[in-house]
Amino acid sequence: MSWVLTILGISALVILHEAGHFAVAKATGMRVERFSLFFPPKIVGFRKGETEYMIGAIPAGGFVKITGMSPQELEGLEPEVAAHAYYNQPPWKRIAVILAGPGVNLLIAFLLFWAILFSGSVAGIGTLEDLNPSIHTRVPNTTVAAIEKDEPAYGTLRLGDRIVAIDGRHVNETSAIKAIGAHRCAGTPREGCRAATPAQLTVRRAGRTVTLSAYPRYSAQLKRMLIGFDFGSTPKRYGPFAAAGTALGEMWGITAHTLTNIGHAFTSAKVRHEFSSIVGITVATQEAVTAGAGYALVIIGFVSLALAIVNLFPFLPLDGGHVLWSLAEKVRGRRVSLAAMWRFSSVGIVLLAFLVINGLSNDITRLGG
Fold it and tell me: 3-state DSSP call for residue 352?
């Protein structure tokens, strides 16, 4: 069932993206020949008016075919048809049609992030912070959320314990770390050395207050004393306007991180190894659906945002390429030749193809174990 929901979710993102193009094209008087989910060959379809609606066999996106998307297509068109062709419209109309697709994906991401924040979904809010750690959507508390095996806390603390004091002093998350760190090893600290004195932990457990002892150990990696547990956190409460502002900040942070990673992918093997294709994205989305609604909605919002980002790259046949050349035409006062467009775009296409092939290779390796 999770796979069905995953495919439906990703298909919905594609359909809504293309629906944005379709709706604005119709609204600006352009002639739409085809609205397709996936790419040909055609599996099934029907025609209504001037537009054919179909489902293709290759699940790699979708498209809206508008009459006259290139200057060559204008040749031989009947005058009444040519009047509604894409390339016979002013640049602002073309730009509006092209931006409508990514715009819908941005809107979907915003609405999903906003809904998660406003609803207070614990899993969803936590996932948003994991995607963009620069925005803190959770407030730390002193409840024990995880205990590491074979560490001093193991067998002493229990999940759900709330630490109220250490060594007789009330603490929060920050002061608790300092209080534990005040216990030192005898001599020079070294990996795993035990503190000379125990930390006295005052804990609220099942409505009772108990006092426990644990000897902190030194972590050379973290360069501090610890007893081996993690604090929990509470989702922040957001009003409608605060949720909107945080959702926009989340989108900006994810976009900046994504673009940075794409740039680094051409110079860093480590970053390249982290890339995924549509295969990996589908698997990750399926796992998110299985994990629960809050987590799944954030991941779908992230995929929608990524779809918008990639489509806005300034290379044909991506949406950003069409916007770029419409703007160039407006500035120059005349059309740019199709050959010049494709010469410029060929560099970007090669780079994007490299990333797609690399991502697919990574996914095959991961799925193959």
Answer: helix
Tally the domains of the chain: 2
- Enter the tokens of residue 269: 């093997």
pLDDT in tens, 10-65: 888 888 999 999 999 999 999 999 999 888 888 998 999 889 999 888 876 788 99
Q: What whole-number distance in Å separates Cα of residue 204 and Cα of residue 312?
A: 53
The three-state secondary structure class of 41 is: strand
CB 164 within 8 A of CB 203: yes
pLDDT digits (tens, 9 = 90+) for 313-359: 888 888 998 899 899 888 888 888 778 888 888 877 787 777 777 76
Q: Which two tokens stand for residue 246?
A: 């945080």
Element (H, E) at 162: strand 162-166
Q: How far is CA 186 from CA 117, 183, 197, in A?
A: 47, 10, 9
Residues 229 and 262 in one domain: no
**For residue 84, which of 24, 25, 22 has the smallest C-alpha distance?**
25
Residues 109 and 51 in one domain: yes
Residue 246 banded pLDDT, cuts 50, 70, 90? very high
In a domain, 357, yes or no: yes
Q: Is 263 within 8 Å of 71 (Cβ atoms)?
A: no
Task: Name the amino acid, one letter, at 344.
Answer: F
Burial pattern 297-308, b for ≥16 Cβ within 10 A else e, equals bbbbbbbbbbbb
pTM, entire model: 0.76
